[in-house]
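[audit] Reproducing an earlier prediction to check determinism. Same input, same settings, fresh worker. If the tokens differ from the archived copy the diff job will pick it up downstream; this log only records the rerun itself.
[audit] input (408 residues):
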Amino acid sequence: MTYLEATDWLFQQLPMFQRQGPAAYKANLDGTKYVLEKMGRPDLHLEGVIHVAGTNGKGSVCTAVSNALTETGFRVGLFTSPHLDDFRERMQVCGEMPPESWVAERVNSFREELPTWSYEPSFFEWTFGLALLWFVEAQVDIVVLETGMGGRLDSTNIFPTPLVTAVTNIGWDHQQFLGNDIRSIAAEKAGILKDGVPVVLGRMRPEAQSVILAAALRSGSEVYYANPSNPASIESGPFWPENEATANRILEVLGDQPGWRSWVRPSSVHPTGHRGRWEWMAPLESGARVLVDCAHNVDGLKRFTEAIKTIQRARLLIVMGTVADKDLSGLWSLLPHEAEYFFCAADIPRSMDASTLQAAAHAVDRRGTAHSSVENAITAACGQAEAEDLIVVMGSIFVAAEALKVLQ
């Protein structure tokens, strides 16, 4: 089995939230525990864990912490999701992905055993198990885990005593699973808190913070606040100051712990290069600039669109796509009327048809053209762009992923 055959089998044969949506969601940890048992309980061989949840920014925070610890000399396993280009992005050690041959061998081995299993794993459960196997084989010193969705019932929530937990923020996302109000969503995120384990809190709504603090009181978790001190910039983006403060606070809390005190030296983290997060591409020959971002929930989009409105440009050209089950009602008020839109659909079954998105946009006075693919939409936008124009790719993680392939 080749690497491409292995990943194609993973994507096509196993339930996958990105492809199927809610049908793939597993509302308990039983499947994760079953998969890890079949894989030899790699989790029992990983003692140092940092676990991060939140609505936005958790992947960038995890990447920043991983980079800082790697630079200090630790072997660091980093688990993030989703991937944008290569499946192996989800399971890196010191910034390096596992060999393609390793993935192919492990997937083939477990695929042969799968008919004897009494449970069909989800894509995320399967991927998480493979990541832990890789971290054990790579002999990492510490693992940095990004929660996939929520916290309490997420596959990553199987470590009873992490070194540090963190919640970056709480916003509106995945309400069909996490709850229809901020307090309910916060309660799910607070599910990663553990007895006596310190927790770092990013900036969040007061009603969300009160829920996290109540959970911390019940678990006896000392609370540390991340307070941004540096201003945002056009180059690093509106999210970086908060992500930077949260990552630095995690490192400080880790460095204060016995066994880590003499090894971890808190220092200022740097912008992560986390793909698709306020990522500037090379300017076009025309001189136009191109910005790609994965923001897709209301809180993230609000911060993102407010920031792009402050960027000086002659015209704003927006390449946009989303998933079919996205509630668009709160989206349009965030998007500028004056922009020229290039609507598209990522190459996944869940995508909203570009013509459907165009019709919804026209109904609220946002004008643009529908294109048959992300690549065609980007080509059209780049073809029209002139010096001093700004092209923005947004609306979906999957659109951003395809855009990066076209633009790099």
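[audit] rerun output stored. Observation attached for the diff report: The longest helix spans residues 240-255.
[audit] end
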